[in-house]
Batch of 2 targets.
Target 1
Amino acid sequence: MQGAAAERVGQAVLDALASAGAYFVFAGRALVELVRPPFEVREVLRQIYALGSRSIPLILAAGFAVGVVLSMHTRATLERFGAGALIPAGLAVALVRETGPLVTGLLVAGRAGAGIGAELGAMRVTEQIDALEAIAVDAFKYLAVTRILACMIALPLLTTLMDFAGMTGGFAAEAAATGIAWPLYFQRSFELIGFADFVSATVKTVVFGFIIGSVASYLGFHATRGTEGVGDASTRAVVASSILLILSDVLLVKLIFILFPQIGS
Amino acid sequence: MSSLAAAVEFDRVSKAFGDRVVLQDVSFAIAPGTAFGVLGRSGTGKSVTLKHIIGLIRPDAGRVLVHGEDITELRPRALARVRRRMGFLFQEAALFDSITVGENVAFPLRRHTRLGEAAIVARARQRLADVELSDAFDAMPADLSGGMRKRVGLARAMVLDPDILLVDEPSAGLDPITSREIDGLLIGLRRAGTTLVVVTHNIPSARAIADELAVLGDGRIVARGTAADLDANPDPLVQAFMRAGTGG
């Protein structure tokens, strides 16, 4: 009995390692194809529209709510130390450096990642991917690389919107509590933020976009078992990309501290 | 038949999926401009045979030659060049469901020709007219019946005027009248010099279209020859197939 259980666990570990290996091969190929012509410009633009623009309402609403909540929480603490005036700057730093990129990444993973996984999964099980190959179109380049690139371009733009919405939410909360004027709030917001903050945040969101696009495309490309497999690809795309996003964030923060020491100091 | 003359040649091709052997040492050659029919019970590797010819599946052993070129050895770009000379009708049509019927048929033209927009649309409309679907240009694939989707798939497979047309179950899901019309279309293509490889369960269609037939069973070619040759073949499987079409 114990032997059988150990065998099952061992097999599961081997399967997981094999899947991870296959994903890294897939992602590595995507990195090469990203910079190799021909570039599917029209399809990339279509995907940016499909993945990016349709996420805007979600991003704006979530950003505004995050801004309000962060502002309310920090107010309670900072006021105790007489540092209420630092709320705009603190909120902006939190949003630009960490909360904005991560929350945007998780929201896009949930919305676009699931969509990519389901769409490519359905194309796989209905032989549409084979049909593309039969028409002499590189399906990997046409379907996966375009979606990955679209995520890499859309995510920094969406993060900027998230940051803006968050600051607006923070201003709304502060204006309700203290009656602070809009120009003063925004002046204070940017007091602690430098150019390096925007560069590092952009690099981070590009990496997040690559993770979301490549994980969802990989799972969609490898979907099996009909409609059940499509649903599975969609769900796993969200779960796997969310976990990878959070894990990679830890590494990226450390890397950013090394590359941009002024941020960590 | 000389190998050099073959449009398609299987040379001792074997393929297994896990423990299940689908093709075992299968060899045949198809002369250019002829129609080759593949018969066999479900799951005997007919579709797998077609997918080998267009390089969607690679054999575990053996070679697949298209116009004398071993496509199992080709790199992706070279394989794409070979594929541009082929058309493939999938068993379930495999239409791109996010674009219209017209865009499905126009898709290969947009990818592989320098035709202007008007010429692309005109040719796509002509191919749809060939399969009696002139009115479906702006419809979405989801709005069509299975048989109509099949015909759109055929129009898409034909739109680049391929040298070799691979057709998986052209009659499946079609009414008898449309089925005969599709047969007529395929016969016309063969007469115009297109090499056809047709997988079918429809014996009357196979008799009408194919110059030569092969019956697959247990991963091997059980019998091969003209319809008359197979009619005279004593093998029970072959007889079961050939009689199915005559009501015998």
Note: Chain B touches chain A through 24 residues (CB under 8 Å).
Target 2
Amino acid sequence: MNSPTTQHMKTLFRIEWTLFHRIKSNYVFVVLVPAMLLFTMRSVQKQLPLREHGIEAGPLMVSTATGVLLIFSLYSSVTGLYVARREELVLKRLRTGEVADPVILAGGASMYVAICVTQIVVVAAVLSVMFGVMPRQPLAAAAGLLTGIALMTAMAATTAALCRTVESVLVATLPAIFVLPMISGVYIPREVLPDALGEALLFAPLSSTIDLMRSGWTGELTAPETLTRTALATAWTALFAWTATRRFRWEPRT
Amino acid sequence: MAAENSHIHAQDVWRRYGTGKKTFDAVRGVSFTVRPGELFALLGTNGAGKTSTVEMLEGLAAPHRGGVRLFGTLDPVADRARIRPRTGAMLQEGGFISHLTAQETVGMWAGLTTRPRPVAQALDRAGLSHRAAVMVRNLSGGERRRLDLAIATLSHPDVLFLDEPTAGMDVEGRHATWQLIRELQGRGTTILLTTHYLEEAESLADQLAIMHRGRIAASGSVPDIVAGHPSTLSFGLPEQWTAGDLPVGGTVAERDGRVTVTTGELQKDAARLLAWAESHDVALARFTARPASLEEAFIAVAGRDGGRREEGA
């Protein structure tokens, strides 16, 4: 079926795909930076007492890669995209046409979602082969991937609402780029931290996604735990989406 | 005129910016109606509230007070999905992705539009066929306006909003755009345009309104609007006569041997003056009589209140 919404999504995806390849610096932020971070984090994680906590290196790297790619390939890229399009008055112009507001945002982000999902699937496959581990709970991994994508897109829209200019995107995304991975178990697993802190950080925005992804390869989460983490990630997504709905600006501040 | 029979209807519309004590009413109780097939021009100085008004009609912003209806009964915000396939809009500026070519830009909009005309045809109508492969950022200001118009008219809209469509265009481009607008008028498209160019409004508009400080200060057809402003008689007077000898009302001014009479009763004063000249055997050199121009009416409206801005609700 080719409904107007599908047609609009396809068109916006195609345009962003064209632009992605036309502006070469995109490759640096979406491919090079995450790749360098992953190599660095592999070295860091080798120094951690993972065996003492019963953590397998392969699944941990899968969850780390997922977090890094969600933050760099999706979150920071989509935040920049929304602010740039707003500054150029493209969002305002699109609103004079037939495209619905959610489709304008989703259509623009869809290309980065596709890139991010492809990157995660490829990296997870490569890591699975490298470490000799296979997915044990594919549904948990799928839930992790879906909640992560929804959460990062909603968070990008919220962050874009706070940015006045394209230049301010760099500053506005810093907390998510530096703090979020530290508190969500992306770089250092929560089990390695003191018990109380590790348990409290379960409620950090990206923790549930990371847990779900790791469990996809370890099978460590029970069904209720999987549901709880899915619900937590959904609640964060709903909170960011609600904030974005209220605060998102479609045109530059005057 | 009833809203039901109109294409655009604004009733006591207000638009407020800011919150709390720091509020500013950019539009203050504007009402007008545009009939199907009519071209309605909104004139005004910078900051008069034209764009703020148009944005409410386009559904980009909801009125703080009052109501807007398109096609008789549809609310531009609530009924957006039903309205948009029937409308086209051109913003005052921008709205393009600078790294796309003109052709890619129109192609993108074709993918977002119900029943678009072919991309090549749209570019041709806008006179941009030879610039199709040029990046938008490398187009001139006038070419971007033409590209914007090509996008706004991509779907054969019933109602078209044009916010300063010829701003930044050279004379040739402006006349080509006017020609395109006249073609759209000829096909029955209802058009609302804002402009700074009085000549543009005078040439194209069936009805117009002059906005000043958020309100409509004058509205109607061009003859309606200028009728409320004084006409001018102008002539040279032989040396032995002075302005005080003339049998006319209104304001009489004399400069460099040329007399200008500003009057609200053009026909009567002209008749009296010509009769006086005939009876006194006076030759009125280069005699002219003309009604007020739209520019004079506009300046009279825009000059009210001494340029003082009114801020706060």
Note: Residues 230-291 of chain B form a domain with the Alpha-Beta Plaits fold (CATH 3.30.70).
